[in-house]
Structures are given as structure tokens and as C-alpha cells.
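U., I forgot to send this yesterday:
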Amino acid sequence: MGEERSGREPLGEDARIDALDAQLKAAKEREEQRNRPQSHGTDANYRMGNRVLAELLGGLIGGALIGWVIDRFAGTGPWGLLVMLFLGIVVAFRNIIRISNTRSD
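Result:
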């Protein structure tokens, strides 16, 4: 009785428990790997698409807004709006072409 053992006693069930522990660890590793975000394939394309959309909308809306303000204060009719809208479209397409020509690693 004076001898106390710490931990588990070696039984015939230890091999089964150890095998279950190994299987559980392997399953957890597979689950973590499956839930880990993908490298940069889809995410990079998604970000680039969002950037192109932002450039296009920003050019159109920005040009139209600036043109409208010019027309409002200068009284030039629709010409300020049309010219600035056209310039906004040109700038947006120029930025989109620049984005498409950049090399993504």
C-alpha cells in the first residue's frame, strides 16, 4: 500500500485508447486543414474583381458628381456633367487596364 502509481496503469485497453487518441488527433488535423483559408487563388481573384468594380463605380459616380456641381454653380447646363462623366469613364477604364496589366504573384 505504500507504493502509489501516477498516471495510467498498463492494461490491455491502453493500446486501444492510444489508437483512438491517434485517430482523434489525425481527424482534428484534417479538419483544421480543411477549414484553413485557401492560399490565394480564389481570394485574389475576388479582391481584384472588387477593386475593378470600385474603380468603375468610383469613376462614374465621381465624374457625374463633379460635373453636376460644376453645372450647378457655373450654370453650364448638361455640358459639365457630360464632360466630367466622360472623363470619369476614361479614368476608370485607364485604372482598370492598369490593374489588369499588373502581375499578381
